């Protein structure tokens, strides 16, 4: 997911340094040349060199010999070329970055405008970075919204498409394609900001699935009323995990290894069953889900209830949501089948 081309600051700066160095060498050569050819003092020679290179037309230090005239012609020619080079490098250094940045932003915006069913991540702090990394690892399209200038160089280095601006603004969320997005995650630095992000996003896209972070437990209900489909408290989740690690360290190690390890990674996912799916109307045993697709069904959500550890004779009805565990590839294949398609 390219984010555009970031111009290297060091290139125009290096050109300017080279041009200035050459210009100083030309001044030194001119000073020494007038000293040797005309026999002037060092100050007069330097003065003559400077007014010659600057082409200001001030009075000459003294009459020029034929050799001095030829030397002056050469000095003016070299000086004009060197001065133009230095001026070009200076202009490139001053405004080149802005021009390059504008081109990169337009290119990135065109890329964002082409996205459909993507995920918008509002906030690129520690949690936002982890969310973006997880979604990118699953090859899901994402757009990051961030208003902290200190985070922009990091965003550029990741390659994630991003919009720099306030995520509570309609214009910024529209630029991130929230009206075409599948989901939005609000992980700004404070609960009040997350509430405004949720309100704005919900107004722009009533069908958007919104997950918001709540720092304080008392703000969870406010976020739900604002329009969040799910509110997550990282402190509560972290507390549960730490308690589980103390009480059942082997289980915690196993979950960490299987869900986040470097080897085989298992995922939990949900799959809604379409009426056209080949598993609709069959029992778990008849569907052969485990043998055919490699995933394990750990729960089934039916209207108004959830069946934990469903038995083999549990019937899978259309519109049921199956909670399954498996590798990402196994889950992707099974989700396609559940939706009425075919496995890859």
Report on the structure:
The chain is built from 13 helices and ten strands. 53% of the residues lie in helices and 14% in strands. The protein is elongated. The N terminus is likely disordered. By secondary structure, the chain is of the alpha/beta class. The longest helix is centred in the N-terminal third of the chain and has 48 residues. The protein has three domains: 103 residues, Helix Hairpins; 118 residues, NAD(P)-binding Rossmann-like Domain (Rossmann fold), CATH 3.40.50; 73 residues, Alpha-Beta Plaits, CATH 3.30.70. The strands form two sheets. Strands 3-2-1-4-5-6 form a six-stranded parallel β-sheet, sandwiched between helices. Strands 7-10-8-9 form a four-stranded antiparallel β-sheet. Helix 5 links the parallel strand 2 and strand 3.
Q: So how many helices? A: 13
Which spans have pLDDT < 50 for at least 5 consecutive residues? 1-10
Q: What's the count of strands?
A: 10
Proper CATH architecture of the largest domain: 3-Layer(aba) Sandwich
Gyration radius over CA:
33 Å
Q: Report strand order across the widest sheet.
A: 3-2-1-4-5-6
Characteristic terms for this protein:
single chain; 344 residues; alpha/beta; Helix Hairpins; Rossmann fold; Alpha-Beta Plaits; 3 domains; six-stranded parallel sheet; four-stranded antiparallel sheet; 13 helices; 10 strands; 53% helix; disordered N terminus
